[in-house]
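anyone seen this seq b4? input:
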Amino acid sequence: MDDLTALTQIRADMPPPSAETLAAARSRLVEHDVRPAVLARPFRARTAHPVRRRALVGIAAAAAVAAGAFALTTGGSEPDRAPAPRAAAPSSGSTSVAPAPRIVTVAQLLDAASAGALRTGAPSLKAGQYRYLRTHGYGVTSIDDPPGNGAYEFSEYTNEQWLPASANGTRYNRSVNDIAAHYPTARQRKYAASAPGGIPKRYVEWDVAKGDGDYVQVYPHVAGGPPTKIPCSGSGCTPESKISVWDVPTAPTVAKLPRDTAGLRASLYRYAKQNHAEAVKYGKGTQLGVDDAAYFGITNLLSSAVVVPSNLRAALYQVAKTIPGIKLIGSLANYDGAHGIAIGRVDAFGVEHDLIFTRSGGTYIGDRTVATRPSVEYKVRAGTLLGYTALTTGVKGKPNLPH
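predicted toks r here
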């Protein structure tokens, strides 16, 4: 069974795609001479299998690795194809829509995104309402040391957040992980089956937090309290107290970031220069450049689970305009198949990080990460997709937690 077939079976409640839909989706994936092979998620919630060593691959991982916060492993065995993004639902009715402004440069897109962020702002919430964010993607987990002594485990995931109007209110988080896990080879599946926890099953987790406190798992109930954090150890680790907001954003640290372009850029490049220095000190092979680290900082913040206020997003887009090497991608769909326009930049590792926006208002709707060439850091074929997500936002009522 190939990965496209596997993914259609994951969502059996959805109508089967037509041949035309699949052809269009494959066409979108191979735009710009990029041949998909593997998907990996840049963000992953806590899982039920903490004993497995997970490789964090993608936008957030590259910045974290350069800072010494995580150990990253990649390997050279991967499926021949990755699932295509879902086709967006066709519009109904005859309502006319004003054409989106023609965007032909990176600066035009980022200016549109800045203006859109300031114009839209945060949603207006009534009593009992919450701001809702949903991230949907398909990713890979590294078990031990694949491909020779381990396995790559592929599965779809969703992460949902309900955020109150008050900063002192209660936040809710729902993660659905390990949806129909599958493996590149029978040998890797056998290895995963023999690892602690075996072949994972679909796993739903609810977490609750009050104010700016940490999330606490409430379902499934964990005997003895929340899972114990496993600290990083060794000379290449950054102490938790010194981890930058650009590496691991949290609501309190994001709130302290400057909102003016000059101040925000100064904060970002202080981090980028330190990140580069640590990569030189602890890294091997290709080193992360200062501009690479700066772009990672922005993409990491935008793709994190933390809500970025509209005025900060507007300033981030203006700062991004000052980073060299960013290109415009004229047409790109997110993982859910929503069409948009994107910016992308290739780093010193040969990895391209794309941020996808709507054409109409410049709203961020997802990201994609592609290896443009094999490297020591990423032992994959050129054209391998390392990350693909879709972000949707809205307003919802309080979620009903399971008992």
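The longest strand covers residues 129-145. DSSP finds nine helices and ten strands in the chain. kinda curious what u guys think
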